[in-house]
Design a protein that fits this description.
It contains three helices and 40 strands. The protein is an all-beta fold and about 625 residues long.
Length: about 625
């Protein structure tokens, strides 16, 4: 890996002693968790034999096989903590949101009524979003869920991990009725995150502004963020970042739609929106074309299933993330049917596409997307969940190749190496949302991925993917993972029920220093999984506050160095997954060590670095950008 390049012409380093009250230190460890202490949660580790992961170019570990004992278990508590809504009803034509049918060449796997079901209902059967954010600025993670044919639901966390439905109280009960992707971001730098929601079969996206004083106000059109038109719309993930390091949050939206809703031009709903900043805070200009990130006519791998003269709309999700460590956030778009796009930020408001120089095009169906330093070398690696299974068909019997999920190691200098089959993470069946997070606090990133798809008919000739098991892998810190799904409590015989999981969010819901998992399911209530580590590690929770870099300091690089010299790197705001957004504060597991650690934060707009050399473990801290 190359040495980090400081952004801008000057980088200053501030060293803060442990006793200087320049950074607020707050830290209380809660001793108990709702529903148990974790020692008796999940399945009995002694009853599960350890097996090696199945690896190879066409294989991956499966949760249906015996798996290694898990260092953590899950407990499903959604109803117990007050989260009780249903995402929507599963319907069939002619009751789908898109009931009209276009002239679509029939695929070999479905004809007649089956094709109608697949194409007319496809977008909504891939839907279900969740966003974790602190809308009331009280320090804990609140949750917003999108729904179909009903307004989304906002739950306020009471600080203990119990939630109250405040949708009507905050003026969100009027819609949108068909929300899909959602995300929180402080678009005006006023200290209160605003809420952006993408939609399906609507004429606009929605932006709810939050001033912290009461009900939200919907202002998307007035602020240039609605993308209003009369074209068929199927919005998916929304992501946030600061593309020009001006300290104001920008927005990128995504669209995935079935082929008969493709148009002759690129998607008008997959766009890059630049915040005008201090002159007009929270007002946006569409800079997609000018920035060079238009999702143009890159051919996908469906061949004659896509009519001539149309441009596919295959973008499921995106992330603004600095992958080459030059201080500027790049744009990676996880896109279906072999159309992943990698855009490098040139630092002048424009991007250069570099997809062809990466191995990313090998992903046949990129859906979920998550970034983290899985091998401890200081830069962010990429995992994308995709369709992959051992007993399925291949083209032409299936629509695409079903390559399985992929893990790419970031080697620096814009070079990547695929780690997938040896990493043991290929087979997630019909994978959707995924997230890297240290679930047991041992200092190594673990991985979760949602699973399940019910199109209304058989998706392939050989397998039904409705209600398939979600996945969990324990990471070892070198880039290798062990499938621990069954022992963690997932699977048909486990305490966590299966579902058709889509969006996933990670957050410490009850403030005990352990990260929990929230899953939005299609056509069902969500699942809330409290995590119980078998041997909980020590931890830090780091909230980064920017000045020149904007209040949320999106793109700031946090490095935690232990007494043994081991470094862990996180990027603030790189928490966008497929239809999911994890909480903003950075969580770092520290293992069994109790010695103080060093925390360093490099801010993107100013290039300044704040260093705290002696930070005690097991607490929440705040690090502020000077100025």
């Amino acid at each position: 890996m190359s040495d980090p390049a400081p952004p801008g012409p000057l980088s200053r380093r501030f060293r803060i002693g442990a006793g200087v009250v320049c950074v607020a230190l707050v830290g209380v460890v809660l001793a108990t968790r709702l529903g148990g202490d974790g020692d008796d949660a999940g399945t009995d580790a002694g009853a599960v034999s350890e097996t090696e992961a199945v690896v190879g170019p066409d294989a991956g570990s499966s949760p249906e096989e015996p798996a290694a004992p898990s260092p953590f278990t899950f407990e499903e508590v959604a109803a117990a903590v007050g989260i009780t809504h249903t995402q929507g009803d599963l319907v069939l034509p002619p009751d789908c949101l898109f009931s009209e049918l276009g002239d679509v060449p029939p695929g070999p796997e479905a004809t007649g009524e089956a094709l109608e079901t697949l194409e007319a209902c496809q977008e909504e059967r891939s839907a279900g979003g969740v966003a974790a954010g602190d809308f009331d600025a009280d320090g804990d993670a609140d949750l917003y869920f999108t729904r179909l044919r009903a307004p989304g639901v906002l739950y306020e966390n009471d600080g203990s991990g119990h939630f109250d439905d405040v949708t009507a109280d905050l003026g969100l009960d009027g819609g949108p009725m068909n929300g899909n992707g959602a995300g929180w971001a402080d678009l005006e730098n006023d200290g209160f995150p605003d809420l952006y929601v993408t939609t399906i079969a609507d004429d606009r996206f929605h932006l709810f502004m939050n001033d912290g004083s009461g009900p939200f106000t919907e202002e998307a059109e007035a602020r240039g963020a609605a993308l209003v038109d009369d074209e068929p719309r199927a919005g998916f993930t929304v992501s946030f970042g600061d593309i020009d390091n001006d300290g104001w949050v920008d927005i990128h939206t995504n669209e995935w739609s079935a082929p008969q809703r493709f148009g002759a031009a690129p998607s008008p709903h997959a766009r890059l929106l630049r915040n005008r900043g201090a002159a007009e805070p929270g007002v946006f200009d569409d800079v997609t074309d000018a920035a060079g990130v238009l999702l143009t006519d890159t051919p996908d791998n469906r061949g004659d299933r896509v009519a001539a003269g149309v441009v596919p709309r295959d973008a499921f999700g995106s992330t603004l993330v600095d992958l080459d460590d030059d201080g500027w956030q790049d744009l990676l778009v996880a896109s279906d049917f072999g159309t992943v796009r990698m855009f490098w930020n040139d630092g002048d408001g424009t991007f250069t596409e570099g997809t062809a120089d990466t191995p990313f095009a090998s992903v046949s169906n990129a859906m979920g997307s998550t970034f983290g330093d899985v091998d401890g070398d200081g830069d962010l690696d990429w995992f994308t969940s995709s369709i992959g299974f051992l007993d399925a068909c291949e083209p032409p019997a299936c629509v695409s190749e079903h390559s399985g999920s992929k893990l790419f190691r970031n080697d620096g200098d814009r070079l990547f190496t695929e780690l997938t089959p040896d990493a043991g993470v290929v087979d997630v069946e019909w994978g959707w949302g995924s997230a890297l997070a240290d679930l047991d606090g041992d200092g190594a990133l673990d991985l979760v991925a949602t699973n399940g798809y019910d199109p209304g008919v058989a998706a392939t000739p050989s397998k039904d993917f409705s209600g398939t098991t979600d996945h969990a892998w324990a990471g070892d810190g070198t880039g290798a993972f062990t499938d621990v799904s069954i022992d963690a409590g997932l699977g048909p015989d486990g305490p966590v029920p299966d579902g058709d999981g889509k969006g996933v969010a990670i957050a410490d819901l009850d403030g005990d220093g352990v990260l929990d998992v929230v899953i939005a399911d299609t056509g069902a209530p969500p699942r809330v999984l409290l995590t119980h580590p078998r041997e909980p590690g020590h931890w830090l929770r780091i909230t980064v506050r920017g000045a020149a870099s904007g209040r949320e300091a999106l793109g700031a690089v946090v490095t935690v160095t232990g007494a043994d010299g081991r470094r862990q790197v996180r990027h603030v705001g790189v928490a966008t997954h497929f239809l999911g957004q994890s909480e903003l504060p950075v969580h770092v597991g520290l293992g069994s060590g109790t010695d103080p650690v060093e925390v360093a934060v490099r801010f993107p707009a100013s290039g300044e670095e704040v260093v705290m050399p002696l930070v005690e473990v097991d607490q929440a801290i705040e690090v502020a950008e000077p100025g």
